[in-house]
Amino acid sequence: MTTQRTPDSATGKVIRRNIDTILAAKEMMPKELYSALGMAASSYSLMFKNAGGPKTRALMRIAKALGVSIAELTK
Asked: How many Å apart are CA 10 and CA 58, to the nearest integer?
């Protein structure tokens, strides 16, 4: 099992992630979910002038955990 220790930008706490599980989840994730996350990210960035709002940050954390970028999700 491969783990990664990264600090959470919101709380500063160190998070341990199981990289193998994340990669497996990314492989099994349907393309529709990527599209849905991308649309949600786009709508939140357009709706909220504050791009660092809690919902936008939550979407960024989801994308980061999946190993993708918001730009990749919005393609």
From this structure: 10
